[in-house]
């Protein structure tokens, strides 16, 4: 049996970890799976695009090796060229300033990082491939060379998984890990295993201390010493997408939300005269107002066109209410009402009530109402009085209330509270719509005929600027 010493041998941890935000590693892209996606995924992508459970595994650390001391005969007594090679290799072990040998360690296993990628707009791809394994680190061979050094470097490359901006990462049925709300945000979700140490086998006459075999130094069945790398970690994660947008468009199906988005941005959403044309949120970028000059050009904003909401959505009718989570990050809501419909006032109240049932704080968020389709005779006659009626429903918006709720909302997001729990337990349940703020403005428009669009944009921008100055006040107070 061989004995080993590690006095005088300094093990260089060749893979000390840097904090996750400064990890600079070779990018290993996630390969597209060629497997056929489940039929339900193809039929009903809107049920899957914003939520997925994946399993990731970081790479195992590579194994160290049992090496012979420079100048010693190899225990295998190998002859000829092999012998010469080994002697050359052994004599090349580096020494530290105090003369200790620096031995190679097994390579680190690859880490797994999830990052927010602007080019991704849904989590559907991850349903097709739900398991992601990073590579293992290289082993140290009998000559003290890391097997992967020739090709990839000592540590295995980091596996980077792209997700849409706005993805919340949680442990499966567990705690919140990260909110990847900005492009480029990233989180290390599984750390690769450390490489195994290497040992020097000493000749019998120089044995000084027999080491205890530690967890990663073991013997196999044939009594051979193994210096194992640490295993990687395996974690199951739940990814939840919450669209990042400044303005959320809400309304009944067919009200004209997608037509609005197409009229004011470059987005090309599906538009049709049947309900639930929109199944997943569409995003569009609203340019800033050039008339305000360069300094104010920052009033550009992202608009999210959501699927239509119907009465009973909170009970699962229509598309249900799950997509309402995509309003969470918006600063402003735009209620789109079909002014030519049978009972537009009731339609408006229905949508507000469904929002309240989902999350009462949505009703405290600043909002404007757009009465659409005023090109149609029925609407053109009634919209001014309708606007008057809607504009006085509720109390005048108070910023302090809004902020309190906004804080609650961000707290809920941090803790990843499910909004329905706010809904069902909150005393607000008894509140009537009248207890919530009035709209900041009510305008008439026809998105199809491009009537009233400028006025609507003026109101949207002015509302956004108000939200912005509110945030600035907050920042100043905090500083
Ligand atoms: N006359 C008239 N028709 C309009 C106007 N705006 C939209 N429409 C029509 O109303 C229908 C529904 O428009 P969409 O934009 O798809 O409505 P939506 O609110 O996105 O509907 P969902 O996606 O089902 O929720 C389409 O046939 C549009 O052409 C308008 O200003 N005037
Ligand atoms: Mg639509």
TrEMBL record:
Keywords: GTP-binding, Nucleotide-binding
Gene Ontology terms for molecular function: GTP binding; GTPase activity
InterPro entries membership: G_OBG, GTP-bd, GTP1-OBG_CS, GTP1_OBG_dom, GTP1_OBG_dom_sf, OBG_GTPase, P-loop_NTPase, Small_GTP-bd
Stored CDD domains: Obg (cd01898)
Start and end residues of each OBG-type G domain: 245-465
Superkingdom of source: Eukaryota
Signal peptide coordinates: none
Pfam families reported in the protein's UniProt record: GTP1_OBG (PF01018), MMR_HSR1 (PF01926)
Region listing for Disordered, in residue ranges: 60-101, 412-431
UniProt entry tagged with the keyword Lipoprotein: no
One annotated Gene Ontology cellular component of this protein: mitochondrion
Record domain Obg: where: 46-244
Xref: NCBIfam families: small_GTP
Protein name, UniProt field: Uncharacterized protein
Species of the source: Spirodela intermedia
């Amino acid at each position: 049996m061989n004995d080993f010493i590690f006095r005088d041998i300094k093990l260089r941890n060749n893979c000390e970890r840097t904090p996750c935000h400064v990890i600079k590693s070779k990018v290993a892209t996630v390969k597209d799976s060629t497997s056929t996606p489940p039929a339900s995924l193809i039929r009903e992508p809107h049920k899957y695009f914003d939520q997925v459970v994946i399993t990731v595994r970081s790479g195992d650390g590579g194994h160290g090796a049992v090496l012979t001391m420079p100048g010693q005969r190899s225990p295998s007594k190998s002859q000829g060229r092999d012998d010469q090679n080994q002697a050359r290799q052994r004599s090349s072990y580096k020494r530290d300033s105090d003369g200790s040998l620096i031995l190679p360690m097994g390579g680190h296993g690859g880490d797994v990082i999830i990052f927010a990628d602007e080019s991704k707009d849904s989590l559907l791809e991850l349903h097709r491939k739900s398991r992601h394994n990073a590579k293992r680190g290289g082993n140290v061979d009998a000559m003290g060379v890391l097997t992967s050094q020739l090709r990839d470097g000592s540590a295995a490359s980091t596996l980077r998984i792209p997700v849409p901006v706005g993805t919340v990462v949680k442990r499966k049925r567990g705690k919140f890990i990260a909110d990847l709300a900005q492009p480029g945000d990233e989180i290390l979700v599984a750390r690769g295993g450390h490489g195994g140490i290497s040992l020097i086998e000493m000749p019998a006459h120089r044995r000084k201390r027999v080491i205890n075999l530690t967890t990663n130094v073991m013997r196999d069945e044939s009594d051979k010493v193994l210096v194992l790398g640490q295993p990687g970690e395996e974690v199951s994660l739940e990814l939840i997408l919450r669209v990042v947008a400044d303005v959320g468009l809400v309304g009944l199906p067919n009200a004209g939300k997608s037509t609005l988005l197409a009229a004011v941005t470059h987005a090309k959403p599906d538009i049709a005269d049947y309900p639930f044309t929109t199944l997943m949120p569409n995003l569009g970028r609203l340019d800033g107002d050039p008339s305000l000059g360069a300094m104010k050009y920052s009033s550009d904003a992202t608009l999210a066109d959501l699927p239509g909401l119907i009465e009973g959505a909170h009970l699962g009718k229509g598309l249900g209410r799950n997509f309402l989570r995509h309003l969470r990050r918006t600063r402003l809501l735009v209620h789109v009402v079909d002014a030519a419909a049978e009972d537009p006032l009731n339609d408006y109240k229905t949508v507000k009530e469904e929002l309240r049932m989902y999350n009462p704080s949505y009703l405290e968020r600043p909002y404007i109402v757009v009465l659409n389709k005023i090109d149609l005779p029925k609407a053109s006659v009634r919209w001014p009085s309708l606007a008057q009626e809607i504009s006085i429903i509720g109390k005048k918006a108070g910023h302090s209330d809004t902020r309190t709720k906004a804080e609650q909302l961000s707290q809920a997001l941090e803790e990843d509270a499910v909004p329905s729990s706010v809904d069902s337990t909150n005393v607000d349940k008894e509140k009537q719509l009248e207890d919530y703020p009035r709209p900041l403005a009510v305008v008439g428009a026809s998105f199809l005929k491009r009537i009233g669009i400028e006025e609507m944009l003026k109101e949207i921008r002015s509302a956004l600027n108000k939200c912005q100055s509110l945030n600035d006040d907050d920042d100043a107070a905090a500083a």
